Amino acid sequence: MADLIRLLPDSVANQIAAGEVIQRPASAVKELLENAVDAGAGEIKLFIKDAGKTLIQVIDDGCGMSETDARMSFERHATSKIQTADDLFAIRTMGFRGEALASVAAIAQVELKSKRLQDELGTQLEIEGARVVRQIPCNCPDGTSIAVKNLFFNVPARRNFLKSNNAETRHIIEEFQRVALANPGISFSMFHNGRPVFQLKTSNLKQRVVGLFGKNYNEKLVPLEQSMDKIRIRGFIGKPQYAKKSRGEQYFFVNNRFIKHPYLHHSVDSAFEELLPEDAYPSYFIFFDVDPKTIDVNIHPTKTEVNFQDQQLMYSVLRSAIRESLGKYNITPTLNFDAETSFDVPPPKKGDPIKQPTVKINPDYNPFRSTGMKPSKDFSSQQSKMDDSWKKLFDQRHEKEQNLNLHNEIYIKDDEKVDADASQLIESDWSTGNIPTEKRNIFQLQLTYILANIKSGLMIIHQQYAHERILYEHFLATLSTRKQVSQQQLFPVAVTFSAADVEIIEEIMPELKMLGFDISNLGNNSYAINGTPADLPNENVNELLEKVVENYKKNLTDLNIDKKINLAHSMARNIAIKPGTRLEVEEMEDMIDKLFACEVPQTSPSGKPTISTISLDEMEKRFK
Ligand code: ADP
Ligand code: MG
Q: What distances in angstroms separate CA 395 from CA 224, 241, 477, 484, one per listed residue?
């Protein structure tokens, strides 16, 4: 039999390797920007078209390349940045693996123009799928311009795998922000389809943060500074009262390289302990300057993971630096947050139940009111205008049964799965449990749990999770039926978003309209909210929208889910009543009914259990 093994042609090997380095347009952007930084550029411009799918171009005024270097730069493992294995432990540059340009060239059409200061003429090079198709001398400015066209043109599977333009643009903006943050001394600009997204002048770190994330960051930040042995920690941390509901602005850089580091992240979290409500995340922009010998950046092709020699030391130095900084700027647990905060609570003491910021409820909106679905109850002394839409919701639910079940599966983690059959049993215990309505004892425990007696024992419902489930199914239904009406604001409210958030708003705009939001684009990243869903709280709509966007963003990174589901989920999360809200008996009873009317009553949209029971048997056992 003939031998079977043969070497892959270079072009195929390159394509396979490219998959590790270049997963999406944003990865190419990252590599090109980093090369420009390594080339010592003072000004770097990024142009993209169609979220980078058609064009990614980076122009720098850095050192440029000779004719031979220009040609060499596209070879795999060709780098000017290290020569020996020892150099790996003294890395000061962003690149060093010599893979990026070879990878990009394997899966796109690339045009390079580069000239060194000392040369009269530059070099123009055109490469397609790793083959050089043209090389000529050219007249061009000092520095380098690399244009990457039609990324993945020869890897359709990858191309088809790309997300929407908005999503891909967001990834690009993220990479741009990371590089721009790490290099405030370089001026950066970014243009998308000819439209400027960022124009950042040479500045210091604080001005760079403000340039990227908005003016209001001026007052949100506290400086961080600590030197010890060979470690220097510097940067900014966000004041606790501005903490966000999503892990928005959290940046670590090691020797100016953006990294992800869950262990050090935990150190920050622990430094902020007691200062933040449970589900709030502090912003931070933290730079570690360390001896390159003490780290290993070679552990991941995209180089976002770094190993430190002494992680524990880093952990404690960082934690105490943050504590000290918060102390120095007088941000201690005794600070009264009410003065300037978005949280309406004084800082919680450890162990206290944490009251969440709540959205005020429109008095006309009562999601607890009876729907009339269950003939056994009648609390409908006051009829609400919501009744109709709720009723519709429940009538519709059978139509979309399959649809919903499919989606909900995503959120149900196996270990938290309450058996659907079990929840039906509880329901029948509740509704037909031989307990006359007036004999039912329902009460609220710790302003968090609803306790009720059922035939088989005791039922415990988590008020927030249950309400999230109810609202989630409501919004999902609205999004699939387009029946929601909008209620005009008396005075339109203006909101300004960061460039990255604008991409999100644009992405979910059609769905926001379906929910009943009436929003118009004012330009300059600002929007006017002219109307809101008729059944929603109409106070603080801008805050609500901001939170929904935050939540939506968080879901994008944590979970890979459908747009409508994500939006319904984010809305539900933000509007649901939180622990700490007092409920009347009628409201509780109605909530239970509504919960059982849901498709998936047993879990919240995030997969948390909503219902638990303690059977009489179990209770008996406890007294043996
Ligand atoms: P690495 O950055 O890991 O060395 P790359 O494939 O990204 O590998 O780049 C290969 C080489 O091409 C670099 O080492 C550098 O010498 C050269 N190069 C790439 N981009 C530029 C640029 N914008 N200006 C000058 N030289 C560049
Ligand atoms: Mg590189």
A: 56, 43, 10, 15
